Amino acid sequence: MKQMSDTAPLASGATQNWVSLAAMVVVGALALMSLYMGFQAYGNEDIETAFMYMIIGTSGFIAIGYSFFRAKPPTKRSLEVKESEVITTLECPQCNLKRVRAFQRGDYLFKSDEPCTRCEGNMLMTRIHTRKDEKKK
Fold first, then answer.
1. Which helix (H) or strand (E) holds 3?
2. Containing domain of residue 121, as a range?
3. Residue 1: inside a domain
4. Contacts of the segment 102-111: beta carbons below 8 A, 24+ positions apart
5. DSSP conformational letter for 125
6. Is residue 94 in a domain?
7. 90, 64: one domain
8. 84 Cβ neighbours under 8 A, 6+ residues apart
9. 103/17 Cα distance (integer angstroms)
10. pLDDT digits 0-9 by tens, 56-84
11. 3-state secondary structure of 60
12. How far is CA 128 from CA 21, 77, 82, 103, 111, in A?
């Protein structure tokens, strides 16, 4: 069952709800009436009034055309979140040993984490980054 708030496709794939469609009908009727009155005034040789009505009518139709074609059609594809592996690089400041491990909650830069396996110093976290995809060729 379709509700009143649903959108319906119109010209050029633009979507408008029923309120803006009703507003366009009203503006179109007023613009058409203005053009008719402008041609009547032109027939009665009242050029200034005819020009005013013609400008109003033309502006109404321009506004309707703009509202029809201003919106782009919605894209059907959804945004995909790419899963990436976050890793932490640990370095020992004494022997320059580097080790890479998976990111763990609580990791932050320059945190003294675990003892070095080569010497007795503490390893510091120097980088937290994502692993690059190796699929690109």
1. none
2. 86-130
3. no
4. 103/128
5. E
6. yes
7. no
8. 130, 131
9. 48
10. 999 999 988 888 777 656 666 767 777 88
11. helix
12. 53, 32, 18, 7, 11
